């Protein structure tokens, strides 16, 4: 497993644009595509799905039977005074009610179970896919927005999958059965009723499109709120140091107001939509009453049939009525699904070749051969750049900020790919080998230390997840960390807090080195590993690094030149180009750029 190396959370006062893949806006996903995707997950739960479908069929049959009992009572039992059958009718209605209750309980439970399993698979698929994407994807997209897609957007689908999908399926089945039966009873009257349904569908389409757009705004505003929370909570010390609490509260209020306005817009659309559907439903009832009564008065239809027809009309209209109520959920889910699919459809830019080889244990001879590299559409950072790191030697990179030092480290670990040129390790092109086998042999110790909220032992063991407690303690000992760890009451079981907030800078850095030692990589990259430490902490770190670097290829990125004076070779970079290289003493004798940097850090003082 590669040593985790990601930049510290960036404090973004102004937020940032959301970009996926090439940054093009995703094509809106249809509701059909959403249901099709959900079905691909749901069909893995086939026994539960079959059980739910059988319950739906049984429910539809029972709902069909109850109006028939009503019709039989009015047309036969009452006129013929069949007192002995009244209890049977009452028992039949109550039995149907009990059976309907049991079947609805069973169908709801089954669909809830299916829904939770679908969400479990979908959320895991989304998270796994995000883990497979390269570093540039996370450079482009906000952490809070990605968190919102994994948590909030997936959760929005839960209600639709658990209840709304079952309601839609039940209504579709019921609508089809009732419509066929009503056509059989009186096709003319039924066709008059069905004539109102195209208007319902058109209304639903028009309002549905607008509601989905509004829900999209709602969910994007939730992502903005989540992103603001993530940034401000991780940067709470900075906010308090600059007494910016009121400023951040106002910015948070702006984001929550956007969410409030979008929700109000959705409510207004729904408030306008439902009365139109209700009017069309009442129009259908008026048709049945007027023309049904006219047929009854002409003895062409019995009163019981009219009553049953009205009951069936209600069953026929229920799907539309239900859909008008759950369209809120459906459109919200469709908007959430679009946001999820934006991530799922994003392809990684750093991909392995189809038959990539596994990199064998290496000596660590690294060669950059005429590399051209730029971040996204930015200006070229490295142009025709060549560099050689000798196996088993310590190579240092120095230079001004922005000269490309950290970029070189990123390219070795293949966090990014150069636009041109080739990088090889022991003669193997890193594009021809698997990412796992490459990164398993690289350890990175950075100034920006990434520690997870957990115990000291868990953070060290991240370097090798299968390691034993003894191996973890040995790595801590080698990293000069065992002393301070054992001084804590809970030792290796001490909780370090988010990003190691309970530890000092030197302690966090020694845990990072222990993690790298436990990984036992062949290639070590030290990126400003001691830049922000005091003199005493730096000495502890230097002792730990001496243990880590034995017999390994090491690249050191440093501004503090005192840390690289013993390097085998030092390269001086300016604007992506090597301007000088050699050993420390050689570079001082050249009196060039390295000498200037050295004089700035160690000015000569005249003593009279």
**CATH homologous superfamily descriptor of the largest domain:** ABC transporter type 1, transmembrane domain
Major sheet attributes: 6 strands, mixed
Number of domains: 2
Strand order of the largest sheet: 6-7-8-3-9-10
- What CATH calls the topology of the largest domain is ABC transporter transmembrane region fold
Radius of gyration: 35 Å
- CATH architectural group of the largest domain: Up-down Bundle
Fraction of residues in β-strands? 5-15%
CATH class of the largest domain: Mainly Alpha
Instruction: State the secondary-structure class.
Output: alpha/beta
What is the number of helices?
19
Task: Give the topology, please.
Elements: H1 31-42, H2 46-80, H3 86-132, H4 135-140, H5 143-185, H6 187-194, H7 197-234, H8 236-241, H9 245-297, H10 303-344, E1 366-373, E2 382-389, E3 394-399, H11 405-412, E4 420-425, E5 428-429, H12 435-439, E6 442-446, H13 456-461, H14 469-478, H15 482-486, H16 505-519, E7 523-527, H17 535-549, E8 553-557, E9 569-574, E10 577-582, H18 584-590, H19 593-601
Parallel strand pairs: 3-8, 3-9, 6-7, 7-8
Antiparallel strand pairs: 1-2, 1-4, 4-5, 9-10
Helix pairs in contact: 2-3, 2-5, 2-10, 3-5, 5-6, 5-7, 5-10, 6-9, 7-9, 7-10, 9-10, 14-16, 16-17
GO molecular function, one term: ATP binding
InterPro entries: AAA+_ATPase (IPR003593), ABC1_TM_dom (IPR011527), ABC1_TM_sf (IPR036640), ABC_transporter-like_ATP-bd (IPR003439), ABC_transporter-like_CS (IPR017871), P-loop_NTPase (IPR027417), Type_1_exporter (IPR039421)
Region (Disordered): 1-22
